[in-house]
Structure formats: structure tokens, C-alpha cells
């Protein structure tokens, strides 16, 4: 099934030795190169993530932004082997010096919740309705720290159905402490409550406490505020930022909301139809957005100084993933589309380090004025594209990644 | 919690009272004169009239009704027209085999249904699932009494491993008791287990797709722990309700199975009493069965609140 | 698809047609699609069709008169010659009795569920749509019905009204009123607040129009599934009653009665009770398979009631 790659999959992607886009000396915490996550459905192969590369530094908030269906959640789930039923392939997925691709389910379990933990979109459905929130946090503490409490199936079941978790146990005490850390009042009492007894914002704080319980280095927050009221949203985002400052934990923040990105992120990757469109520092992205899609997204945010009568919406819809246009997936909605858009996408670096745009407008062989094309030297342009794409060759390809979790 | 239980008990009592009233009048609507039935075809008209007088059948219906109701509140279900025994005593005498079969049948059903349903959901669309689903389909498609006949033929008649007929009380030994009720209990338990297995499967499959199960995996817990600590209780919540609803199916099954195995139980007594127009026994049996049914369901509802923390006790219905 | 065409034509008159505010126009299409694609539906439907045809044409197809006694071949095990399924203790041909038995079993099964469905759905629709006082009274009544185990109801009704085709049908069907009422009520409650109901109200349709033209058609899918599953159960129930001697008439050949008569002879002639049992099992299995396929096709959740 996974032994052969689609012929242009490698070529389509820019994935080169400079995968670490910042100029800090240390290795990044997480490096992802050329990630492909594919679902097999009745309607054919669905490439939910189609060659994505990025890196996350220690202590940074890395935003992944895109419309729904752009593959941002699947990207996160793929990293931890949680993308059910999908085939996950990549050139490299490394966390610190560990190769996540080489890990089996058991190895990944030691990473999940411990080194990398996740916060999901809907706290109402993501917490177990029949377990106290304290126990849901305490079990993470028990499973990822050797605190001398048995975590065998029998012990866990006895704790759940017979004895309950002792209030004086180290795991429970830690759970209460964590609830306090994330700003829940009366944490000792609240720990005994069930999720339905808490408000939405409280539940999301519980999710955060649970994510912190294994002392992770990276928290993946998948649309953590989408299901919450706007007033609660700011509190939760601030909570996450505080934790980053306090514990130095890195955060991968997945969102569809550019306003959230502007408030919180250090660096941003813009995704569309399973592919990267642009990566940059958050500041750069808003000051100097280069990809027509990014510009479209930014123009569709309401502003306080707005004198526009209508917000600028991007026309059309995300393409059907089984029938994406060849080359740039955005080309059929793009106002600046031109002759090269059918060519395989490569990432063109911009002035600032780490700023990279997957748009052929920035091919050196294209002379233009803004988005207006003056002249395209097709021969030269294609040569450039091949050069960029070639950088991806020679990297070992791992066809089996993910199959063992399916 | 206590208020909730009290409310439910009161509700159940009202239901049983209405049931009893309906039964009283329904039984009087059964054609055939019990006095005539009792004395046989060639009894004289005077003898029948005397007996009717004796049995209180000559009084107006409402008098009979109020007398009957006031007796019931004193725990007196009347006397059998046929055998002169107290109805309550007769019912107590036959309750044990019926309850034994129903109880063991339920245990068998649950023991088969829950593990099979969970396996089926976890291994969905693999051979384990197909086998379990196929067997449960067979189970729900066979009449319980026919399963009984087949079991009787194979295990009692051909193999001779268990006795074919009758009932032995557990007071005379657990092993003989089990030997006598094993086949009847299987016969009532299999169809019931088939239904429950399908419910468990669909319930567990739904739970496996829940967000909190993904959360549990993202926490790094192992598969069995996720299944049994995070999934099982959620999957069983609807099963508890359904098990209660299906009690009627189980009780109905016991009646016919008692006939197959020649066991003197509640069902057999009821059928015989209808044939003999033994009003007090029919009334008593129906009331007792409804009573058991309603209170079993009440018990199930209370269990439901204890495994589902989302239910608030004060709420009622 | 020819099968789906057939269904459209037979059912289309009552249930089909696109309603202005309704959302169920694809139901019949899915019904037909299921029949033509789903293996379970195909098998189930074929089995039911086979038994149905055998029942309908029994007088023409049956090799013998089901009541004709042939004293030369009492309890014949002969599975080859004159009596393909053997004979019973009176020398009556089992195949013929089985085919005539199918008439009663299938007719009572279908009739009973139809009876329960019509009454139950009416109660449920009215109760769910009007709510309040009406709902309280009707649902309490349903509660009481529910407190009788089904066999008790059936036994009592047969005892009161006597044995006979219609009486048994009503007796069996009575037990399904409460289930249909609950299901219909639940569906109505969830649909009542839907936008198309609001829309119908806002353009000034009356209560009755809304119930029968907007609400009812949208409850159809789960009700069809329930109807199918209950037909299977009703056939089992009828066989139980017949087995207990409380069926249509002790002398009429029905599957349950055949089984009951054979019970005494298991040691000498096992086939007398085994063969009718297999007929019941195959029929009920067929209906259940069909119902299961429909449940998937209509995306109806499996609950205890269905």
C-alpha cells in the first residue's frame, strides 16, 4: 500500500536542509519534514496533509492557521500517531533527538501526554463524563511519573470503581496543585466534580491542567478556544502564554483565527488544502504578507480602523481533497494566478530569515509589479523550481510510518 | 437521592394499582363461569348457584372490587377457587423456579453479551465481529422455547448430561439445582443475550468514537486501560436501561420454557389457571409479575443514576 | 434499479413526493438502493419473499391437504419420497402444514405490528405535538401498558376475547403500542423545534396539516426500521402463543402449534418440532437482516426499543 510514492510528491515539496528557519544555534524541539497523511476512502485517496515541513523551537508559540479542512488538526494528530485510519509518511519527524517515525505504539505512548500533550477543541466532549476531573488529571501524573503508585489495569480499575483515588496520594495532590496553577478556584473541591458540573472555560482549564500533568515540552493546542465564549477565549489564551513563560513549554497553536495568531504566536505557518502557503514570524506575516492567500485571510479580518464597506472575503471554497488542482492548490481561487501555477510548488525564501512563501510569484524568473505579471521566463522559472525541489531528494523516505497505529 | 427514590417508588405503586384494577375487570370479562367450571358439566343449577353465592360472585361488581382492593392492601390476594389454597402461598410456591430461571438466564445473557459486544466493537469488521454478530443474529431469531427443545434433545436426551424435566430447589443442593435450571436458563438467556450483545456493540462503537477516548490516547494511556477505565462505563450506561426494558422479553420467555421443561413455575400456574378460570390466581399472578417487572425497572433506573453522574437525583423524569 | 422502481411505485403514493418544508425526499431512493446493494438486505428480502410466496400460494403449491391424515405413514422420517419433510403423529404432511402455517404466522406478524404501529404512532404524534396535559395523560397510559410484560397482555386478551385470527393479532400487536408511541413521540419532540416545522407554522398551516404533512413524514425512517424489527418479534410472539395453545385455533396449522404438537415426540420424531422451528428462525433471521440493512441505510440509531 505504502511502498510507492506518488510520482510528484517529493518534487512537489520544498523540504531542504534549512528546515530550521530560525537562526538560533540550538536544534529545534520538533522538526517535521515533508509530512504526508493520507486517508483511503470510498472516493479515493484523500491527502489530508500533503507535504508539510516546519520546526518548533523551545519555548516558542508556533501557530498553524488555516480554514477548516486545511489539514492543520490532522498534522498535529499525525505527529503522535493519533490520526486513525490514515497512512502517515514523512522524511523526518524528530522530537529532540528522538525519531518519532521509528517509534511503535508503545514508544509513542511514552511520548504522548509526557513529552508532547494535546488540548482539544471541545472541552465538553473531550473530558470523560463519568470520571472526576481530579482523577483525569491524576492518572496522567501517575502514568508519566514514577511516584510509587501502581498503574496496573487492576489497580486503576479498583481505584475507579471501588476505592476512588485517595486524597492523600501524590497523584491527587499534584492534580489539585495543577488545577490551582491553571486558575481554578477551590481546586480541592473542584477536583471531585464531574465535567458536567463545570463551565466551558473551567473545563478547558482542566484540559490544560491535564496537558501539563506530564511536564511536557510541547503542548499542541488544537483550536483550544473555538468552542468558548469570546470573553473566556482571552483568559484561556493568556493562561497558555503564562504557562509558556513560567515553564518554558513550547506551544503549537492550531487555529482558524488570525486574530488569535496575532495576539499569541511567535511564528506562524499558513496552511491551505493540506499544504503550506507561507511561514514567517508573526510580526512579519502581518506586516508583509506575501502569499495572495495570506493577504486574503488578513484582509478578511475586521479592523477597528475599517472604512471598508464590505470585508474582503476570498471567493470560492477549499478544493475537494480528492481532486486538488495540480501545482498550487489555491490557484483556482487566486486573483493573481498565472502561467506557472500548475507547476509543482516550492517554497521561496524572502528577505527575513524564516519567511518563506509557496507561491511562484516569487520565482526569480518572474518580473512583476505587485501582483501584476510583467514577464515570465518560463524556461528559467522551471529550472529554478527544479533546483528548489532537488533539495528534497536524497532524504531517506519512510514508507511504513503510521501503518502500525492504523 | 432519597427523594428521587421515594418519588419513583410512589410512581411505581400507582402503576401497579392501575394494573391491578385493569386486571380485576379484565378477568371478570373472561367468558365462562368459574362455578360451572369447578363443578363440571353435569352439576345441578342449585349447586352452581350455591357455589357462586359462596364465592361472592353474586354481589355487584363494585362491591367485589372494593373488597378485593382492601384485601390486597392487607397482603391478601385471595384464595384459589380450584384448590382452596391461599393465592399468595401458591405464588410463593412457584416463584422460586421462575425466578431461578430468569435470574440465571439474565446472568448468562450478560456474561455472553457484554464481552462479546465489546470484542465485536473493538475488532469491528474483523472475523471476531462477524462471528459474534452472526451468533447474536441467530440468537434473536429463534424462539426461546424452541432453543429449549433443541437443548433438551441434545443435552438431556442424546448426551444425557443433565436431567430433562422438573426442578430441584437449591435447598437440596446447588449442583442438582444448577443441573435442572441450566438448560431452561440458557433457553431464555440466549435470545436476551443476542439483543443485549447488539446493543453493547453499537454503544461501545459509539463510545470508541468519542472525543474523550482520543483524549485518553493522547494522554499516553495503554489500550486496555482506555477501554476499561474510560470506555466501559460510558458504554454500559445505555445498556442498563435496555436490560431493564428487555425484562419483559425475558419473563415472557420463561413461561414457555417452563412448559418445555415441565417445571412447575409461575408461567405454568398462570396458563393452567386461565384454563380453569381460577380468577384469584390469575389476578394474583399478573399483579405479582407486574410488581416484579416494575420494581426491577425501578432498581435498574436507580442503578442508572449511580453509573451516570450526569443524572441529577432530584430531577426525576 | 428495478427493485427500487418497484418500491417507489408501491410506496410512493402514500409516503413519497417532495414536500415544501420536508427533508425526506431521499428516503425511498435509499430504500431501493439498500435493496439493490446491501447483501444483508438482499438475503433478508429474498427469504421473506420466498416464504411470503409460499404462504400466499400454499393452496396451489402444497403437495397435500394439510389436514389430510394418512395412517400408513405416522411420523414418517422419510425425507426422500412422498413426504419431503416427513409426517406428524397423525400422518399429516409436514411440508404442507408448514406452508399453510406460514400464512398464519406471517399474516399475524404483519397484522399485529400494523395494529400496534397505527395506534402507537397516533398516540405518539398527538402526545408529542400537543405536549402539556394531553402528553401527560397519554404517556401515563403508555407507562401502564409498559408495566405488563407482553406475554401477559397477550394471554389475558386471548383469554378474554377467545382464540381466533383477529384476536391473536390484536393480542400480539397490543404490546407494541407503547413502543411505537414512545418512539413517535420522541421523534416528534426532536422535530417539533426544527426549522421546517417553524417555517410551516409561520406560513399559517394548521396543526393537523403540520402533524401529518410535515412532522409525520420526517419520523418515517426510524419507524420503518422499528416496524421491520417488530415484525420479526411478532412472529416469534405468535409462535409462542400457538405453542402454549393460545394461538389462532388449536387445530389450525401454525408454526408454533406444529412445534408444540411435536414436542411430545422429540425422542421418536425430532423433525416434527425441529422443522417448524427452523422455518421460524429463517424467516425471523431474514426480517432481522433486512431491518439491520435498513437501519444502516437510514442511519437510525440502535436503541432498546427497536
Automatic annotation (TrEMBL), chain A:
Its main location: membrane. One of its GO terms (molecular function) is ATP hydrolysis activity. Keywords: ATP-binding, Cell inner membrane, Cell membrane, Membrane, Nucleotide-binding, Translocase, Transport. Residues 30-298 form the ABC transporter domain. It comes from Halobaculum saliterrae. This is ATP-binding cassette domain-containing protein. Residues 1-29 are annotated as: Disordered. CDD domains: ABC_NikE_OppD_transporters. It is a peripheral membrane protein. SUPFAM superfamilies: P-loop containing nucleoside triphosphate hydrolases (SSF52540). It comes from the Archaea. GO terms for cellular component: plasma membrane. InterPro entries: AAA+_ATPase, ABC_Ni/Peptide_Import, ABC_transporter-like_ATP-bd, ABC_transporter-like_CS, Oligopep_ABC_C, P-loop_NTPase. It is found in: Cell membrane. Residues 1-21 have a biased composition (Polar residues). GO terms for biological process: peptide transport.
Automatic annotation (TrEMBL), chain B:
One of its GO terms (molecular function) is dipeptide transmembrane transporter activity. Keywords: Cell membrane, Membrane, Transmembrane, Transmembrane helix, Transport. Coiled coil: none annotated. It holds the Pfam family BPD_transp_1_N. PROSITE patterns: ABC_TM1 (PS50928). Residues 95-304 form the ABC transmembrane type-1 domain. It is a multi-pass membrane protein. Belongs to the binding-protein-dependent transport system permease family. This is ABC transporter permease subunit. It comes from Halobaculum saliterrae.
From TrEMBL, chain C:
The chain crosses the membrane at residues 43-62, 104-130, 150-177, 269-290. One of its GO terms (cellular component) is plasma membrane. Pfam families: BPD_transp_1 (PF00528), OppC_N (PF12911). SUPFAM superfamilies: MetI-like. CDD domains: TM_PBP2. It comes from the Archaea. Keywords: Cell membrane, Membrane, Transmembrane, Transmembrane helix, Transport. GO terms for biological process: transmembrane transport. Its main location: membrane. Residues 102-291 form the ABC transmembrane type-1 domain. This is ABC transporter permease subunit.
